[in-house]
Specification:
elongated, 35% helix, 155 residues
Length: 155
């Protein structure tokens, strides 16, 4: 039964504490060393030193180690991670430059459109405002003064 489902108050709930029991370390007894005769008796060798002394002993075959394959200074996994990081940074830098270029191009196009609108509006305003004289095109009718410019009637 869970404590929250009992009818007792939380202060009355029994608390059970478990203490870990330490394990006694196992005592290891070293195995006795038994001398074993080699399967074959090595051959004796005598070497004459340059000063005339003779040294006799067992011939020792030089130990041939396994040929070591040349390992790269850095593991392949580390190189792959580094190259991936460089590629990721290059991609991020390229995207940053691309967005900067697109933003600058958008601003340039917006400014060119604004400049064209200002120039075109100025051109239209200039022709409308300066066409008061003889350069005015179209039919102008002023009924009160009886001026008809199209057929040159001035009355």
């Amino acid at each position: 039964m869970y404590p929250q489902n009992s009818r007792r108050l939380p202060a009355q709930w029994a608390v059970e504490v478990h203490q870990p029991t330490p394990l006694t370390p196992a005592v290891t007894v070293p195995a006795p060393v038994v001398p074993v005769q080699p399967a074959t008796i090595p051959t004796m060798a005598s070497v004459v030193l340059p000063d005339g002394r003779v040294v006799t002993g067992y011939a020792i075959n030089p130990a041939h180690s396994e040929p070591v394959t040349a390992k790269p200074a850095v593991s392949r996994a580390a190189a792959n991670v580094a190259l991936g990081g460089v590629g990721f940074l290059a991609a991020c830098g390229g995207l940053l430059l691309l967005t900067t270029f697109i933003t600058a191009l958008t601003a340039l196009i917006t400014q060119l459109i604004t400049l064209a609108a200002v120039l075109f509006g100025g051109f239209i305003a200039l022709h409308v405002l300066t066409a008061k004289g003889h350069h005015k095109a179209g039919t102008t009718v002023n009924i009160r003064r009886a001026v008809f410019k199209r057929n040159h009637f001035h009355g």
